[in-house]
Write a structure and sequence with these properties.
By secondary structure, this protein is of the alpha/beta class. Helices cover 39% and strands 19% of the residues.
Amino acid sequence: MKYTIGLGIAALILMACGQGNEKKNEAAAGSSHTSNPATENYQPKVTVVKYEELLEVLRQQNDTLNVINFWATWCVPCVKELPYFMATVQEMKDKPVKLILVSLDARSSLDSAVIPFIQKKNFVATHYLLDDNGRMNEWIPKIAADWDGAIPATALYKNGQQLRFVQGQLSEKELKTFIQTHLTDK
């Protein structure tokens, strides 16, 4: 039964994101790179995590607004909206906002697809690859009770609390409003 549900959710993700094409880095959890994305030498760090490890990131107790985006390299709407996240967070660089990108790509594609994609696009953020697809029926409803697993999906967290969750692609204007509305929430 769980296998069937998992396949159903995987099919929903693929349908929501268009057609699919499909070694863990030793980066410490929560670390972000300090490379200048304008250089050819930009080397993003992607930390491979299970849900429980990601949960620790989400539970961070600080006054930073954490913008968590669930995405994949094969997801057309995800790829389309990611530049909006980069531009918006860059515009707000003097504000307590942190972008955390959580790839739902297969772990086997980390070195061949995920890291090269992030590097080519110069996506500066804290990067994770959630290597827990076998338990997606367990963790998806823990992220958001009404999330059916389709991506892109974005959540805002502050002081360990989820402030908002949105499933689906955001326009640049929607994203800016989404973040600005919650930037001053206590």
